[in-house]
Amino acid sequence: DTSLAEVNSFSPSMPISPSSMINQYKFEDEPELRDLFITVDDPESHITAIETFITYRVVTKTSRGEFDSSEYEVRRRYQDFLWLKSKLEEAHPTLIIPPLPEKFIMKGMVERFSDEFIETRRKALHKFLNRIADHPTLTFNEDFKIFLTAQAWELSSHKKQGPGLLSRMGQTVRAVASSVRGGVKNRPEMFTEMNDYMETFSQKINVLDKIAHRIYKEEREYFNEMKEYGPIYTLWSASEEDTADSLKGVASCIDKCCKATEKRMAGLSENLLPILHEYVLYSEILMGVLKRRDHIQGELDSKIDALANKKTEKDLFSEEIGKLEDKVECANNALKADWERWKQNMQCDMRSTFTNVAENNLRYYEECLATWESFLASQRVDLHVEENSEDRP
To answer: What is the pLDDT of residues 340-352, one digit of tens each?
Structure first.
């Protein structure tokens, strides 16, 4: 399928060495100058009579003039991140807002509040804030600044303000009108192509996500069996005097391969699974953004139709149409710029992720092969020694 062709197209002149492959992409899309650095760390458990939750320390360092200080340190819980995401979507409906980890990420694979779960979420929250910080528009959002700088009570007070009644009513009316309205008549070809691309991308990335989880599950089952398999040879060696050393050698090889398998599993759970699932969420977000753009286009189309059918109040309709045309143009330009940026980041992430997985697989198989080859070589040496001792008079 050509939808992911660009992701899989590598230059013929690319170095063959895996380590040089990953280095080629490491800093490809790094911005040259940054004036906002954010770190999410130090998770802390809180237990109350009502609930148990985790807060994370958010440290911000900046040289921007609109900030009163060059460094801030606040604590935020997951609900605060959700609030920030909703405010960004509300303020920028046709921009691609980075996804947050789901409330129970990797459900069924790790326990909630386990160290692994908390660390997985911390990394995702760290990436979420830094993606916003690197975005040319979202980084200057006022709610984002408040999220980074306000103390807990200040943020709580700000959150209670919420959108005004008229704003909420307007959103509801538009949502109802959009759900009733049919397809957009005058959608530009570019956005039809985007929509087709995302439908294919969504299908492919969901399949990759499912396969990756299945691979991880099978790898874990294999690892658990290997842990039980190795000690059997050690126990066996106790009752076989003539082959005790060989049996212990097999047990040692299995143990080394078991550790290598555990290392490869860690690579899958830390690098491959989160990236694939992040882009599953991205595909949902992008489909939503395209629908919101279509809703704005639909409003314009309906006004134009109403003007054609109405003989009076033409001036009023013309003014509304002019405003809607400006709104559609702004939405189109915002989405076009964000689309190209998103595709570039996605392709870089996919290249880096799959190259990293390939490197880890190569290291894994080379390590296991070297382990068994070393064992076989030692057995051949022992065999030659025994043969030579038997030939002596």
So the answer is: 999 999 999 999 9
